[in-house]
Amino acid sequence: xxxxxxxxxxxxxxxxxxxxxxxxxxxSALLLILVGAYWGLVEAPADYQQGDSFRIIxxxxxAAWMSLFVYVVMAGAGAIGLIWRIKxxxxxxxxSAPIGASFTFLALVTGxxxxxxxxxxxxxxxxxxxxELILLFLYLGVMALYGAVEDKRTASxxxxxxxxxxxxxxxxxxxxxxxxxxxxxxxxxxxxxKPSIAPEMLWPLLIMALGFKLYYVATVLMRARVELLERxxxxxxxxxxxxxx
Amino acid sequence: xxxxxxxxxMGGYAVxxxxxxxxxxxxxxxxxxxxxLQRRRLFALLARRRRRAARN
Lengths: 245, 56
Known about the structure:
The structure holds 2 protein chains of 2 kinds.
Chain A: H1 2-8, H2 11-43, H3 57-84, H4 87-119, H5 127-148, H6 152-165, H7 169-179, H8 199-231, H9 236-244
Chain B: H1 2-9, H2 14-55
């Protein structure tokens, strides 16, 4: 097992293996997202209170879930890179940042587009919205810090520390709707008892969420491969690959 | 035909719903295109460097 993990962490093996995973994850993600979008936009019934505006949920909620999930992966990989000096973990961490920032941006903007017709305002400084905005700044901070340091290993360490400190924001976002009186509605899906959403509305949401997760797998590996080549540009296997074309 | 018009009308929420989905599609697509462009740029750079090294 350890030997397998060690081999997996070797740059050349990772490069080859990820190259085989990306098409599968990417195509599955595309199919799931298309099915989820069709189901959510066409098949699911309009909400009895919110009408058709509730269909924004199929972009908003998966994006918000992913904004948290990607952050935890980024901080976790950053910690592994920091403690065990595993180059690949550093690469996964920094490759996650722009994707996580994208999901956070989408969650914020689609939330705003949903809030306008439902709450009558684009934005309020309530706990959920504000903590999610801080999440976006954390992602941007990690990216900026990494970009500001010339040496990639030092940059990774600095970015990882910022990412780890920022983890404190994750439970704040998650529980914000329970701890404070927010305009944002409480959880509808992740409640311990039965979710308060009809199954024909829930299914497309779960399909979309799975699609977004596979999309993240595909795109983080795509970014990681480029980052890896950049760092390993002087090694023999990269040189040979460039030679082969 | 009416069904299609209703679909695009989204019960009066067309602007909000379609902007959300359009934006999501654009952002997701950008995250696929960006690494592809970076990869192409890097390969071009490395190939150029190799040719220069071969000449000297």
